[in-house]
Specification:
Elements lengths: L29 H8 L4 E6 L29 H4 E9 L8 E7 L9 H15 L4 E8 L3 H9 L3 E13 L6 E12 H4 L5
Parallel strand pairs: 3-4
Antiparallel strand pairs: 1-2, 2-3, 4-6, 5-6
């Protein structure tokens, strides 16, 4: 059964600093955001309790009661969403066993370990959806946090594309070309076993 999405605040998570490591040229409209991030069969969200700004997040899967978050509908999404990501086939047909994912960590959640938690979550969820591996086509070399996460989780850098993206500089005033890595993970080797 298809349910209507009531998530109305998506583009706000694509801040100016997010665009430093993103293929989007600027802020996205609501429609552009929905078409890019919410048009897939699987979207995973990691919610946080906004009062726990210094909370340490679990390193392994643990039982979780959604009631501990309190009433989600009474809070601003930017205060409760720690991260979300989609999973989709990276290629059609004979290579559809390889997936791709796109991750968004809002600025207020960065530096808290949520990106690592999302990466570990991805390693649990994607194989259970039937995927055998993952290919991230464009991880910009300037996205050091993402590179550290994938390296630590056992993914491999299998290619480098010179001048793959025209990205904004740290000041946001200028643009420059940066290289991108192609990242591959074989779930048989790096994903936790099914239990």
């Amino acid at each position: 059964m298809h349910r209507k999405c009531h998530f109305e605040a998506g583009p706000q998570f694509m801040s100016d600093s997010s665009l430093l490591h993103s293929p989007q040229r600027g802020p996205m409209s609501d429609i552009e955001f929905r078409n890019y991030f919410l048009a897939y069969d699987v979207v995973i969200g990691i919610f946080v309790n906004s009062t726990e700004t210094n909370a340490e997040y679990p390193r392994q899967g643990t039982p979780f009661d959604l009631k501990s978050l309190g009433p989600l509908e009474s809070a601003e999404p930017s205060e409760r969403i720690g991260c979300f990501y989609y999973i989709k086939p990276n290629y059609p047909g004979r290579s559809s066993h390889l997936c791709n994912a796109g991750f968004v960590v809002p600025p207020n959640s960065r530096g808290r370990g949520i990106g690592s938690l999302a990466g570990r979550s991805f390693l649990h969820v994607a194989p259970r959806l039937g995927y055998r591996g993952s290919v991230f086509n464009l991880v910009y070399a300037t996205n050091e946090a993402s590179m550290r996460i994938w390296d630590k989780l056992g993914f491999q850098r299998v290619g480098r594309i010179p001048s793959a993206g025209l990205l904004k500089t740290g000041s946001g005033e200028d643009e420059h070309y940066v290289d991108a890595h192609v990242i591959y993970g074989d779930f048989a080797k790096i994903a936790p076993p099914f239990v």
